[in-house]
Write a structure and sequence with these properties.
Elements lengths: L5 E2 L7 E6 L4 H12 L6 E5 L4 E5 L6 H10 L3 E2 L1 E9 L4 H12 L4 E7 L4 E7 L4 H10 L3 E4 L15 H20 L9 H15 L1 H12 L5 H22 L10 H25 L1 H8 L4 E6 L2 E6 L8 E4 L8 E6 L2 E4 L1 H4 L5 E3 L4 E2 L4 E2 L4 E7 L5 H14 L3 H30 L4 H14 L3 H20 L7 H6 L11 H6 L15 H4 L1
Antiparallel strand pairs: 1-7, 2-4, 2-5, 3-4, 6-8, 6-9, 7-8, 10-11, 10-12, 12-18, 13-16, 13-18, 14-15, 14-17
Helix pairs in contact: 1-13, 5-6, 5-9, 6-8, 6-9, 7-8, 8-9, 8-14, 9-15, 10-15, 12-15, 13-14, 13-15
Length: 518
């Protein structure tokens, strides 16, 4: 019998949410303000490039309250359904205990445990890793493993290129007259053909701009999508009016190609933006690839190969020559040399014997080792390094805070300038058609996407490249200040790794004192 699904308790501080639907810096600012307005939230930071929000809040603030705040602002939070195979349950009280343990994991919204099938269904934020759920179950005294689900939703932000290709195919005949005129060829498609080509681009492929713009209006603010929707709709509407006004007569000057080309170019920009975001996460994927997916463990004298997620502290792990060490641990049997350059920067492998500590991700160069597990999952050194890089990528540099303040008022200012342009041309006697075209030009050109993406994308790229070269950057502010560094004095590797240089000894030359040296 299924136990009833219950609502999750409140998350712990440091909750991360994957935000969907953001398109520009004003979007990120609006989500940030909405999260900060939730009672009890200490601080909320939204990064447009990573599409994530980091919220510091006490346990009294629930994940559901944060999700509701994001949705109220007109955006959404990526969710995930995970299924775990539970072992060790014998009665209904066991399933209830597992359920309570899962609900204590920050970011879990609901959990249901079925005693008959020995499976747990967990509804949680997409940022909640399966390892955290498994660790919670094991802490409660049971075993858990991930049940792979082929129907899981794709990651947030994954988009195909087909909308760009479709928009380009429909827009090309509209842009052809401008291209052909360069070669002295004068050709113009019929007005009704232009209408037929521009309409699907405007209302089908461009529907995302209307949806996002409407959400911004409902939230009492504006964003880049609102500018694109207003500008292209004005150009499309003016062209449709002129076409209907002159049926069967000399074809008036239409602007269908302008609205279609703007939407196509913005879609192309969005697609390139998503590609850039994916490439900047290559460093994180490369670091994750250093962690083996399986480990050979000895339990009760029997050697078995299990997923790394199922390892427990105290397990004896066997590491063969040439393999990566799957966990942080202590050597109990064997002698070998380990390449720990990933962690220490030392170019030569270091000798390891019984009693020596080793780090997960290191490469066992020669001999076989038996290692007692000291840390698993998110507590390993490599996992902490990955969290450090992710934290630096999600952080905001001081210049980004200035950009966020500018972008918050950017859209209203652009709308005001567009209206002033319309009124100015009308007062100058240019006619409402020319005045409208100039106002539309202001709307479609002044898009704040580059304003909001430049700094966070640069931070992601910088920290990613540094991580691939073994350089870990603690936060965005350190990266911003690095441009003023003129000279870097390197001491031995240990000093750089620890980040705490200390004076070990003062050895003066013959005839000199330590005070003189100092």
């Amino acid at each position: 019998m299924n136990t009833p699904t219950t609502t999750a308790p409140k998350p712990a501080p440091g909750l991360t949410l994957a935000i969907t639907g953001m398109t520009c810096a004003s979007c990120a600012g609006r989500v940030e303000k909405s999260l900060a307005a939730v009672a009890g939230v200490d601080r909320a930071t939204v990064n447009l490039a990573t599409e994530q929000a980091c919220v510091l809040a006490p346990p009294s603030v629930g994940a559901q309250a944060l999700t509701d705040a994001v949705r109220k602002a007109g955006y959404d939070v990526a969710m995930d359904e995970q299924t775990l195979q539970i072992g060790g349950m014998t009665c209904a009280s066991c399933s209830a205990r597992v359920e309570r343990a899962l609900l204590k994991v920050p970011g879990v919204l609901s959990a249901s445990v079925n005693l008959a099938t020995e499976k747990a269904s967990v509804h949680a934020l997409s940022t909640v890793p399966a390892s955290a759920l498994i660790a919670a179950v094991e802490k409660a005294g049971y075993t858990a493993s991930r049940v792979d689900d082929a129907t899981r939703r794709p990651p947030s932000g994954a988009r195909d290129s087909w909308p760009v290709l479709a928009a380009a195919a429909l827009t090309l005949p509209l842009a052809a007259p401008m291209l052909l005129s360069l070669f002295g060829i004068h050709w113009m498609p019929a007005g009704w053909l232009q209408l037929a080509l521009a309409t699907p681009v405007q209302f089908w492929l461009g529907a995302r701009f209307y949806r996002a713009g409407w959400n911004a209006v409902r939230a009492g603010t504006g964003n880049m999508d609102l500018l694109v929707a207003l500008g292209t709709s004005a150009a499309y509407g003016l062209s449709l009016y002129l076409l209907l006004r002159h049926p069967g007569h000399e074809m008036p000057h239409l602007y269908f190609e302008g609205s279609a080309m703007v939407i196509t170019l913005v879609l192309l920009g969005k697609w390139l933006e998503v590609r850039a975001k994916r490439q900047t996460t290559d460093a994180i994927r490369a670091l994750n690839a250093l962690r083996p997916s399986t480990a050979r463990v000895r339990r009760d004298g029997v050697e078995t190969e299990i997923p790394v997620e199922q390892l427990r502290v105290g397990d004896l792990v066997l590491v063969r020559p040439g393999e990566r060490v799957p966990v942080d641990g202590e050597v109990v049997e064997g002698r070998s040399h380990l390449d720990e350059s990933l962690i220490t920067g030392e170019s030569l492998p270091l000798a390891k014997a019984a009693g020596d500590k080793i780090t997960g991700g290191s490469i066992n160069v020669e001999g076989a080792l038996t290692v007692r597990t000291l840390a698993v999952g998110t507590e390993t050194t490599l996992a902490r390094i990955i969290r450090l890089v992710e934290s630096a990528q999600a952080g905001k540099a001081p210049i980004q805070r200035l950009v966020d303040r500018v972008s918050a008022v950017f859209v209203p200012v652009v709308l005001a300038v567009a209206l002033a342009t319309l009124a100015g041309w009308m007062l100058a006697g240019a006619g409402w058609e020319a005045a409208l075209i100039n106002a539309v030009s202001v709307l479609v050109v002044a898009c704040p996407c580059a304003l909001g993406l430049a700094t966070p994308t640069a931070i992601m790229a910088g920290t990613g490249v540094a991580a691939r070269h073994g350089i870990l950057i603690r936060d965005a502010q350190a990266l911003e200040l690095a441009h003023s560094v003129g000279t870097v004095a390197f001491d031995k590797t240990g000093t750089l790794t620890d980040g705490r240089p200390t004076l070990v000894a003062v050895l003066p030359a013959a005839g000199r004192s330590a005070d003189e040296v100092l």
